[in-house]
Amino acid sequence: MQVLIVNTGSSSVKLSVLGPGDEPLGRHTIELQGGAVTAEQMERALADLPRVDAVGHRVVHGGPDHRAPVLLDDRVVARLRELAVLAPLHLPKSLAGIEAARKTLPDLPQVAGFDTAFHATLPEAATAYAVPREWRERLGVRRYGFHGLSHSYSARRSAEMLGRSAGRLVVAHLGAGASLAAVHDGVSIDTTMGFTPTEGLVMATRSGDTDPGMLLWLIQHAGLTPEEVSEGLDRGGGLAGLTGDSDMRHVMDQVDAGDPRARLGLDVYLHRLRARIASMAAALNGLDTLVFTAGVGEHQPRVRSGAADGLGFLGVALDTAANEAAQGDADVTAPGARVRTLVITAREDLEIARGVREVLEP
User: Fold this and answer.
1) Which of 311, 290, 332 is nearest to 169 (CA)?
2) What angle do CA 250, 334, 323 make, to 5 degrees?
3) Theoretical Cys-Cys bridge with 167: which of 72, 279, 284, 288, CB 3.0 to 4.6 Å?
4) Cα angle, residue 141 at apex, residues 171 and 273 outer, rounded to 5°
5) pLDDT in tens, 268-324
6) For 67-84, how does the pLDDT look when each residue is reduced to its tens digit (9 = 90+)?
7) What's the rounded Cα separation, in Å, for the pair 176 and 295?
8) What's the pLDDT band for 66 if we cut at 50, 70, 90?
9) What's the Rg (C-alpha) of the chain?
């Protein structure tokens, strides 16, 4: 089975074709330029790619209904439209990608892989908010977790690299969006994102954890509208809000140039990262393996070392030369360190293809 992977982000749609052995057969990127992908764009892009037998889509939010990959039909798509308010940066564009692919390839089976599904194993203590019971039971307010496709792949890949179970594992998915997952023998037991992808770490444009009382104050006393607060949390916060730039590469350049705003932004980013890695280790009752993945996690050795510098009490230490030289999958553990630290290339496409085959080749 040759599988087309449709990975729709906020600014582009990445298409890739994987062969029966997951070998790459072709890639194409559609730049969205502020809009959503159309069937015409999809058709032009597919003309440059090999034929496929099935399609797999990355979908950020599956809600409480979807705890595993699912065959897409009209009913499933309608349910996903209802969930779009929970991930407004991503789900509407993912749905546009699904619609475009279904119009372009109407005779092929299409499967959704959900970023929330890996976290379906979270215990209730990790999913429940301490809010009124009616909110939880009638409105469905709970923690879902995201980036599950990346966390799941990293858990499997780390076991391959180590030649054994990664044991008590914390995966740090650090990209434009960022989250941690506490994984015990391949099973997610805690994570930093919650009801929406805004909770948790400092991200490129998302604030991460904030005081809800502050948000109420901004609306009730400072005169901001809910829309303005939402915009500030999701698009104007994070590194962008602290430094004026959402790209960690640029922030590092500004740090080197002595920019105090950039220095503060990096310090806040690392402070939150170290603290939340420690909280994930607490959920695991210890730490055996730490993984860095996604754009920042894979390509910013100073972020990795900055995080590790505050985690020595857990047994984390990096080999300086290995950390600086890491390209692709790499072990960057210092000699004698109790915790193994790995850098793993994010491969959500492989996890999506795996889900397609689970659904269509049971």
Assistant:
1) 290
2) 25
3) 288
4) 25
5) 999 999 999 999 999 999 999 999 999 999 999 999 999 999 999 999 999 999 999
6) 899 999 999 999 999 888
7) 8
8) confident
9) 20
Give the pLDDT of residue 361. 87
How far, in Å, CA of 55 to CA of 339, rounded? 38
Which residues are annotated as catalytic? 115
Q: How buried is 328 (Cβ within 10 angstroms: 0-12 exposed, 13-18 middle, 19+ buried)? A: exposed
The angle formed by the CA atoms of residues 157, 250 and 254, to the nearest 5 degrees, is 130
* pLDDT reported for residue 308: 97
Candidates 263, 216, 235; CA nearest to 176 is 235
For tokens 């069937």, name the residue.
39
- The DSSP element (H or E) to which 27 belongs, if any, is strand 24-31
- Separation CA 271–CA 218 (nearest Å): 25
Tell me the pLDDT of the chain averaged across its residues: 95
The conformational region for residue 147 under phi > 0 = left, psi -120 to 50 = alpha, else beta, is left
Say how many C-beta atoms besides its own lie within 10 A of residue 326's C-beta.
20
d(CA 337, CA 334): 6
Type of residue found at 281: A
Which pLDDT does position 88 carry in this prediction? 74
Other Cβ atoms less than 10 A from the Cβ of 295: the count is 18
The tokens for 4 are 């087309």
Is-contact 69 356, C-beta < 8 A? yes
The string of pLDDT tens digits covering residues 115-162 is 999 999 999 999 999 999 999 999 989 999 999 999 999 999 999 999
Q: How large is the angle between the packed helices 91-104 and 39-46, nearest 10 degrees?
A: 60
Question: DSSP string spanning 259-279?
Answer: -HHHHHHHHHHHHHHHHHHHH
**Among the listed residues 358, 361, 356, 362, the one whose alpha carbon sits nearest the alpha carbon of residue 17:** 356
pLDDT tens digits for range 28-64: 999 887 778 989 999 999 998 999 999 999 998 888 8
What tokens appear for 270 in the block?
Answer: 């690392």
Chain-centroid distance of CA 95 in Å reads 18
Phi and psi of 220, rounded to 5°? -80, -30
pLDDT greater than 90 at residue 87: no
- For residues 37 and 11, the answer to whether their CB atoms sit within 8 Å is no
